[in-house]
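Final report, closing paragraph on structural work. Over the funding period we assembled a curated collection of sequence-structure pairs, and we close with a single example.
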Amino acid sequence: MALQDRYRIAVIEGDIQDTYDADRIAALNIPVVQINTGGACHIDGNMIREALPAFDLAVIDLLICENVGNLVCPAEFKIGENTKVMILSAPEGADKPAKYPLIFQESAVMVINKIDLFPYVDFDLNKARRDALSINRDLQIFEVSCKTGAGLDDWISWLTDRIDAFKK
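Its predicted structure, as stored:
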């Protein structure tokens, strides 16, 4: 909601099936197109091209494309993004950069989400940061909790700087 007050946002939501996430986004009055891959592990540029006519791109400041939620296939495909952002959820584990290096190499940003769960899950923040930066030394890392709001100001500031620079 912090961005919705300042920018015109639209979303292309990629999932294997269902519309659960797209329905939640639409309930926020954000234009959204659902792409169901029917079992494929990623969305691709052709799928994006087919979804784009649903939007008036001239009036959109930020188009978010959420790829299918795994750390393998989405890394292998360019979908026309200006910036690739990957989200690492704390319960997934700090070993993901070492196990799935390509997504960390290809991404400009890693958002470590659900940091409020650190006391309850075995997540080694230093390892995650160290391993990710060893793969991509330019990787921007943000630690956030969408539940508590911790770290969101820095992430939103970085994102708004990028949107504003792109609009110029």
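The mean pLDDT is 94. The chain has two domains: 1-73, 82-168. We thank the funder for supporting this effort.
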